[in-house]
C-alpha cells in the first residue's frame, strides 16, 4: 500500500515538475513518535492444543515406547539459547511421534530458565550451566530439582587473520588464551603464540579481543576452561555466564561475535561450535578457528566426534557424575577432563546443556495439572536424550555417549507424579 | 416533549459512562506509573541496601564476585545520547524546515517526504542494530574513523584505535533513530507558526532565510525544544540497536572510538542470566536509574518549555 503511494507520488512529482502549484498546503499528517522496540527474541511455538480426540489410553500414562500414543497434553519449557536450534528440531520430531502432545519452548536464556522452573511457571527448565548453591537454595522448600544432560557443545577460538589460509589452523593452549583475554598477550606474534605455531609466520598486529556481551552458557564453558588453565584468571575473573571481562569488545549473541570477528581483521573470539558448523553446513560461510591443546598434549581441532569423546571421558574420569537428586553445582566436563591425560583425542572445551525437572511432580509448586502432562514432560526429555540425539549431527551438536544416556535414564525414572513413576520399560 | 426528555436522559447517562471511562483511563496511567516505580524500587531493594549511593559512581560490574556499580553505563548512556542530539538535531531541523517552509509549493513531495520520515520511525530497532553492525560499522570504521584517528588521533576524543564498535557508531545510529521523531514533531510545530509572522517579515523585505531564522524559529523554539527532548528520551532508552554497536565494555574512556556500555544495553544483555539474587537486584536498580533518568529529562523539559513560553508571551 505504502509502496503504491510512494510510486504514485514520485510519478506525480516527475510529471508536475515545472508546473506552478500555488495551493496552500495544510498538513494533515499527524506526527508519530512511537518508538518501536523489539527487545528480546523470545521464540515460542504456538500454544494451541490441536488434538481434541478422546484418547482410549487415558488410564495408561506411562511412557514405554514410541508406539504407544500419549494422552493429550501441553508441555512448556524455557531456558538456554545454545540448545534452541536443536530443541526446535526435537519439538517438531516429537510432535510427529506424539501428535497429542504439544511441547513449547521459550529460548529466554539459561538464567531465566532457572528462574522459571524455580517459580514453577514452566514444566521443565533448561540451562547451560548447573545451578549454583544460591540457585539451589532458592528452590521451593521440600522440592528436589533433577539435572539431566540433554546435549553438548564445544567452544572454539575463532579468528580473522588476513593472509592465513583456511586450511591452516593456529594452535592455542588454555594458558595462552587466558593471557590474551587478561590483556597480557596483546599481539599475534607474541613469543607465547609463536612457540605453539612454529611453522606459521604471525603478523605483528594487535589482537582485537571479542567476546559475548549477553549472558551465555558458551562463555560459562569458555571461562571454566580458562579458570582451569590459568590461576590468575580463576581468582580475578572466574567461571561465569556473564564474567567481568578484563579486556575486549562485547558483541551480542553468537551472530554478533561472528560479525565482530568478520568485520575486524586480527580479531579473536570464542564461538560455539554448533554455530560455526551451522554456518559452514547450511549457509556455506566458513569461520576460521584454532585447535586447542588437551591435557595429553595434543592440539585438537574441534569436531563433533572429539566432543563426544570428551563427554565420554568427562563422565568416567574425575568427579563422579551426580546421580538422581545430587546437586550438580560446580560439576563440569571441562574440570573432569582437564587433568585427564589418558584420552588423547578429546576436545577440552566441551560442555553439557541440561534439562531441569522436579523429582516429585504435582499441582503444588511445580504447576502440573495432570498426570498426562507430567508423563508428556518426562517422555519428551527422554526422547531428547535417547532418540533425539541423532538429529544434532547436521546442526552441530554432538551425540550423548551411551553412558550419559544410561545415567540420564536412571535420573528420569526417579520422576513421579503424585507418587507414580512415569518412565518405565525401554 | 417526551422524546426530547428521553434524549436528554440518554445523553446524561452516556455522559456519565464516558466520564467514568475516561477518568478510569487517566487514573490507570497514574496507577501504572506508580506501580512501575514501586516494583522497580522493590526489586532493587537488595542492591540499594547492599551498595547504597556508591552504586552510582562505582565502576566495577562483576556478577561472578557479586560486585556491582553503574557508572560505566550511566556514562555511556549520557555520551551516546549527547552525540545523537549533536548529530541528529541539526539534520532534523533541516528536514523540518524543508518540509514546512520550502516544500510548501509541492504538496505531494512534502507529503511523500513526510511519510518517509515517519516510516523511518517505524523501523524496528533491532533492524537498525543489525544494519549498524554489518553495514554501517565497517564502512564508518574504514572511511570516517580510521582517517580521523590517523590525522586527529592526538586529540583525546579520537585517540583509541577504532574497531567500529564504539560510542561514535552508537551515537550515529541513535541520531538516525531520533531524526524521524524530532523532525516530524518540529515540522508540525513550524507549520503551526501563524503566517502573519512570516508575512510581516516579508513585508519588511526580509529574505526567506531571514524569515526562518528571525521569525519562524524563535516563535517555534519551545516546540522544537519539546521535540528535542522527545528525541533525547528515545536515545536514552534505545536498547537493541545500541547493544549491537556499542562494544559492551565496562571500561570508561574519553575517546569516542573506545568501547562502552549503556544502561539499557546492560539490561538486555544480562537480564536473563542473573547468577545470584544480588545480581538480579542490581540489574533492576540499573532499570530504576534509567527510569529516573527518563523522568528527570521529561520534568526538566517541561519546566524549560513552560519558562520559554512564558518568556515569549511577555515579549509579545
Written overview of the protein:
The complex is a heterodimer of chains A (426) and B (316). Chain A is built from 14 helices and 14 strands. Chain A is an alpha/beta fold and 426 residues long. Chain A has a domain at 154-314: Periplasmic binding protein-like II (D-Maltodextrin-Binding Protein, domain 2, 3-Layer(aba) Sandwich). In chain A, α5 crosses α7 and α13 (371-385) packs antiparallel against α14 (402-412). Mean pLDDT of chain A is 81; it is low at 1-62. Chain B is mainly α. Chain B has 2 domains: 1-43; 55-315, MetI-like (MetI-like fold). In chain B, 77% of the residues lie in helices and 1% in strands. Chain B contains 10 helices and 2 strands, in the order αββααααααααα. Chain B is globular, with a radius of gyration of 24 Å. The N and C termini of chain B lie far apart (52 Å). The interface between A and B is large, with 64 and 70 residues.
CATH architecture label of the largest domain in chain B: Orthogonal Bundle
- The average pLDDT score of chain A comes to 81
Number of strands of chain A: 14
Distance between the termini of chain A: 58 Å
The CATH architecture of the domain at 154-314 in chain A would be 3-Layer(aba) Sandwich
Broad CATH class of the domain at 154-314 in chain A: Alpha Beta
Beta-strand percentage range of chain A: 15-25%
* Quaternary assembly: heterodimer
Low-pLDDT stretches of chain B are none
| Rg calc of chain B | 24 Å
CATH top level of the largest domain in chain B is Mainly Alpha
CATH superfamily of the domain at 154-314 in chain A: Periplasmic binding protein-like II
String of helices and strands of chain B? HEEHHHHHHHHH
Tell me how many strands of chain B there are: 2
**Total discrete domains of chain B:** 2
How many helical stretches of chain B?
A: 10
CATH topology of the domain at 154-314 in chain A: D-Maltodextrin-Binding Protein, domain 2
Structural class of chain B: mainly alpha
Amino- and carboxy-terminal Cα gap of chain B: 52 Å
Number of helices of chain A: 14
Helix content of chain B: over 70%
Amino acid at each position: 500500500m505504502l509502496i503504491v503511494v510512494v510510486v504514485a507520488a514520485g510519478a506525480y512529482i516527475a510529471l508536475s515538475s515545472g508546473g506552478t502549484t500555488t495551493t496552500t498546503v495544510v498538513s494533515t499528517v499527524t506526527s508519530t513518535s512511537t518508538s518501536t522496540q523489539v527487545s528480546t527474541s523470545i521464540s515460542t511455538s504456538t500454544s494451541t492444543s490441536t488434538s481434541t480426540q478422546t484418547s482410549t489410553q487415558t488410564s495408561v500414562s506411562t511412557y514405554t515406547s514410541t508406539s504407544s500414543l500419549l494422552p493429550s497434553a501441553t508441555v512448556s519449557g524455557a531456558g538456554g539459547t545454545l540448545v534452541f536450534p536443536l530443541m526446535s528440531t526435537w519439538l517438531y520430531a516429537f510432535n510427529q511421534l506424539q501428535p497429542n502432545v504439544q511441547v513449547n519452548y521459550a529460548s529466554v536464556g539459561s538464567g531465566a530458565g532457572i528462574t522459571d522452573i524455580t517459580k514453577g511457571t514452566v514444566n521443565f527448565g533448561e540451562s547451560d550451566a548447573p545451578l549454583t548453591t544460591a540457585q539451589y537454595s532458592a528452590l521451593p522448600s521440600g522440592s528436589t530439582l533433577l539435572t539431566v544432560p540433554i546435549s553438548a557443545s564445544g567452544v572454539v577460538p575463532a579468528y580473522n587473520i588476513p593472509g592465513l589460509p583456511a586450511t591452516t589452523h593456529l594452535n592455542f593452549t588454555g594458558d595462552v588464551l587466558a593471557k590474551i583475554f587478561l590483556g597480557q598477550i596483546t599481539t599475534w606474534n607474541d613469543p607465547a603464540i609463536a612457540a605453539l605455531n612454529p611453522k606459521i609466520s604471525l603478523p605483528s598486529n594487535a589482537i582485537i579481543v571479542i567476546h559475548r556481551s549477553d549472558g551465555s552458557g558458551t562463555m560459562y564453558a569458555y571461562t571454566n576452561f580458562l579458570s582451569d588453565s590459568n590461576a590468575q584468571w580463576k581468582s580475578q575473573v572466574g567461571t561465569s555466564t556473564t564474567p567481568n571481562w578484563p579486556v575486549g569488545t562485547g558483541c551480542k549473541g553468537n551472530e554478533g561475535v561472528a560479525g565482530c570477528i568478520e568485520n575486524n581483521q586480527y580479531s579473536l573470539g570464542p564461538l560455539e561450535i554448533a554455530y560455526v558448523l551451522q554456518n559452514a553446513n547450511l549457509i556455506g560461510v566458513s569461520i576460521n578457528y584454532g585447535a586447542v591443546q588437551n591435557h595429553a598434549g595434543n592440539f585438537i581441532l574441534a569436531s563433533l566426534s572429539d566432543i563426544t569423546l570428551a563427554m565420554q571421558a568427562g563422565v568416567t574420569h574425575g568427579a563422579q557424575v551426580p546421580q538422581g537428586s545430587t546437586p550438580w553445582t560446580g560439576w563440569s566436563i571441562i574440570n573432569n577432563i582437564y587433568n585427564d591425560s589418558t584420552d588423547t583425542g578429546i576436545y577440552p572445551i566441551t560442555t553439557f546443556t541440561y534439562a531441569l525437572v522436579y523429582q516429585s511432580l504435582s499441582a503444588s509448586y511445580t504447576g502440573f495439572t495432570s498426570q498426562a502432562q507430567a508423563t508428556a514432560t518426562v517422555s519428551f526429555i527422554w526422547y531428547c536424550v535417547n532418540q533425539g540425539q541423532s538429529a544434532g549431527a547436521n546442526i552441530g551438536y554432538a551425540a550423548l555417549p551411551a553412558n550419559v544416556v544410561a545415567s540420564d535414564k536412571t535420573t528420569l525414572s526417579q520422576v513421579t507424579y503424585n507418587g507414580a513413576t512415569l518412565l518405565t520399560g525401554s | 416533549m417526551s422524546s426530547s426528555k428521553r434524549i436528554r436522559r440518554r445523553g446524561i447517562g452516556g455522559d456519565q459512562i464516558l466520564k467514568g471511562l475516561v477518568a478510569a483511563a487517566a487514573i490507570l496511567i497514574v496507577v501504572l506509573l506508580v506501580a512501575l516505580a514501586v516494583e522497580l524500587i522493590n526489586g532493587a531493594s537488595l542492591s540499594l541496601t547492599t551498595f547504597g549511593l556508591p552504586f552510582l559512581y562505582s565502576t566495577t560490574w562483576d556478577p561472578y564476585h557479586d560486585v556491582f556499580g553503574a557508572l560505566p553505563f550511566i556514562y555511556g548512556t549520557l555520551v551516546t545520547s549527547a552525540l545523537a542530539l549533536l548529530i541528529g538535531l541539526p539534520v532534523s531541523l533541516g528536514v523540518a524546515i524543508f518540509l514546512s517552509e520550502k516544500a510548501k509549493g509541492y504538496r505531494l513531495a512534502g507529503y511523500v517526504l513526510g511519510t518517509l520520515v515517519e516510516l523511518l520511525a517505524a523501523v524496528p530497532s533491532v533492524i537498525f542494530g543489525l544494519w549498524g553492525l554489518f553495514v554501517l560499522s565497517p564502512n564508518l570504521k574504514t572511511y570516517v574513523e580510521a582517517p580521523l584517528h590517523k590525522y586527529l588521533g592526538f586529540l583525546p576524543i579520537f585517540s583509541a584505535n577504532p574497531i567500529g564498535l564504539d560510542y561514535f557508531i552508537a551515537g550515529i545510529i541513535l541520531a538516525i533513530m531520533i531524526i524521524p521523531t524530532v523532525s516530524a514533531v518540529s515540522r508540525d510545530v513550524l507549520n503551526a507558526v501563524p503566517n502573519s509572522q512570516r508575512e510581516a517579515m516579508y513585508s519588511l523585505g526580509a529574505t526567506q532565510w531571514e524569515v526562518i531564522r528571525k521569525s519562524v524559529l524563535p516563535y517555534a523554539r519551545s516546540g522544537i525544544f519539546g521535540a528535542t527532548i522527545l528525541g533525547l528520551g528515545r536515545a536514552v532508552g534505545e536498547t537493541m540497536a545500541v547493544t549491537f554497536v556499542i562494544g559492551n565494555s565496562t571500561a570508561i574512556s574519553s575517546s569516542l572510538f573506545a568501547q562502552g556500555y549503556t544502561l539499557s544495553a546492560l539490561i538486555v544483555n544480562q537480564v536473563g542470566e542473573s547468577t545470584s539474587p544480588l545480581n538480579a537486584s542490581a540489574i533492576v536498580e540499573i532499570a530504576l536509574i534509567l527510569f529516573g533518568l527518563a523522568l528527570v529529562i521529561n520534568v526538566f523539559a517541561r519546566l524549560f518549555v513552560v519558562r520559554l513560553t512564558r518568556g515569549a508571551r511577555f515579549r509579545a
